[in-house]
Amino acid sequence: MIRVTRSAVIDAPIGRVWEVLRDFNSHSAWHPAVGESQIENGEPADQVGCVRNFFLKDGNHIREQLLALSDRDHVSTYCILDATLPMQRYVATVQLKHVTDGDRTFWHWQSTFEVPRGREKEFEELVGKGVYEGGFEGLRTFLRRGGIVSPRVSNSEGMQGQAVIATSFGGPEVLRFESVAVKAPGPNEVRVRQSAVGVNYIDVYIRKGLYRMIEPPAAIGMEAAGVVLDVGEGVAHLLPGDRVAYACPSPGAYASLRTLPADQVVVLPDDVSDETAAAVMLKGMTAEYLLHRTHRLRPGQNILVHAAAGGVGLLLCQWAKALGAKVIGTVSSEDKARLARANGCDFPIVTGNYRFASEVKNLTNGRGAEVIYDGLGREAAAENLEALATTGHWVCYGQASGAHDASPDLGSKSGTLSRPVLFHYTADRAQLNEIAGNVFAALRNKTIRVMVNHRYALGAAAQAHLDLEARRTMGSVILLP
Questions:
Q1: Is the peptide bond before 217 cis (omega within 30 degrees of 0)?
Q2: pLDDT beneath 70, residues of the chain
Q3: Taking the model in full, what pTM does it have?
Q4: What is the chain's Cα-based Rg?
Q5: What residues contact residue 415 under an 8 Å CB cut-off, 6+ apart?
């Protein structure tokens, strides 16, 4: 009879560790060696006597039965019923104990079993290192990433959540915080428990009906971060417990729980927090495509960034400065000017009346800005045309003051006008991964920094919109479910 014993200390409270391990089917979410797994006959995964039927990633097939479970003692015992591996009389016990130093958990894992003569060392290594030590490290990673226990594929059950609903088109007062039913993911969908939600000016456009992307009553919001609960058939790149984020064209992110297309969801690196992700996915990917795709910025170019102290504006200033541009920005107050200057804006112009062209020309020796990144729209149109350099590129990616009444006379400057939309650039999954990866890399190497200066409860979304539209915010705004 072979006996294999391993122990480890997990940097998490015992309740958190036990929450995962007491679920007899959770190993498919956290153990690196385990593939598809299910509990037979639809029984609960913590019911003594239930059988889990699973495959290892090396192709082997195993059926194990839960023999004992004690929530008081944090102990579970199980055995192998059938296996393609030549292991007989396999019985294993998992036991947890509280470590007071740092509120950590001591995990003891042991088993006894028999194998064909001459293969004892092989299976001691397989169980001790591959199963137990690999499992310790797998659970550590799972917990660090905020993982929760959930089936690999949805069990088709709906859940209750909360969401911010636009009851009609109009001002912030049309937003209502309501309980909603959240369906299980269908084919190629994922259900996410959200921990942070980004607030963007596009949400205002949608709420007002300027962008007809919803028909009220409907939830709004374009970006969020959270943890995968379950996935539908056909989803291969996401697993329950994955920390994820998205910025996608289907509104509905102002919610505690959401089901959405899986192809627009990306896995977060361990070094990007949920709050950072919720603040940077839409704004960061917008900055990435504006600077590298819509107009490939070159060192030495003069650029004008409107709302330079806003969420997108700060990222544009930082990234453009790192690319070697001379950055001019417009802001609405001295406080915002100081913030913009600290984030790469060489020359912030304080203006509350959309007058800036003369100053831009003074700062560029009369030439004007070779690139204008414009999120203002109609009220700034005449000044933008005046501030644009001959053969310059006017990139209009937003319209905070309303849509343009008419096309500007670009012939007077031989100028180019672009009206790019982020979601056209990220519609292809490979392109989405590339753009998101570039944003994460820019965060990692400190090319860009995200400032989450304003946090609101999810139910206070209307107040967040009021403050955003009144220009009382600087940097990124997020909602916390």
A1: yes
A2: 147-157, 400-402
A3: 0.67
A4: 27
A5: 385, 388, 390, 391, 392, 393, 394, 408
